[in-house]
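Example record

One chain of 328 residues, shown exactly as stored in the release files.
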Amino acid sequence: MLKQSNSLTWSKIFGLYLFCFLSISVCAQSSEPIRIIVPTAAEGSTDQLARILGVGLEKQGFGRVLVENMPGKSGSIAADYVAKAKPDGRILLIGTPSSHSIAKALSTNNGSALPYDPINSFSLIVCFAQAPYIFVVGPAGPSSFEQFLVNSKANSGAWKYSSTGVGGPHHLIAEYLFSDVSLKLQHIPAAGGARAIELVSNNEVQAMMPASILALPKVKTGQIKALAVTGNQRLKALPNILTFSELGIPLNLASWYGLMAPAGISKEQSEQLANAVMKILQNPSENKQLIDLGINIIDERGSEFEKIITQETTIWQTVVNKINLSSK
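Predicted structure tokens for this chain:
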């Protein structure tokens, strides 16, 4: 009886070991680190999300995860790099409107072709977050958007606004807004979101229109002031700040963030990574952190993710055409 019991015990142990072994992510079976390529400078909103995912993937057993910033050409340098990489699940991209929808709109407006296809060059793993844009001013700036309009028009084009670069979402959405309200401000591009926000908080420029994840921490500490948000609903974190819709300005664009890989990774790898990302974002601490930053957590994969890119490309094309901007 004792011998039979030992045999049964070892059988169970072996079975458990085999189950655990087979359950290990395909992506974790290589000694090579996973590299998450970020199409923006460090400390910006995209960089913050990439680092949250990097830590979470390591905790889930995917091995070492490196976050690499590869800014330039509004995200298209990073996107092109990943599109041409080996499809083994080790090189990933945090895709954004800049690298995909806007890049496509700019190239179309310029009559040129992107070196990659925003959809077909990638495995669209999961679009996991959306964030509204917030119109912000310095701590000594106007207390309402209406007052901002009055003051800026009184300064006859002398006021400035910052962004993360020509052709980026902060630039385009600000220009779109200004064209709607007959306003002209000087554009001051900065090296990354953190620096662009700093220009506002130091009163070196008068305004910016960053995504909520970049703006809210500075708003909460009083370093900048929020005057309005995009979308049809007020942010829970800023319940007293009006939406542009409430101001009579139809401005409903939001930033989105998605995990991608070069086209051709296996369906199993894609599903494992997508499930891992959602598990990270559903963790209570990460979930609260993102909600506090005005982030809406979503789970759009494959064709649904493709639909987001396609629909937004049409919208950004309208914006680009309206302000007559090309990718040059």
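Notes: The chain is about 45% helix and 20% strand.
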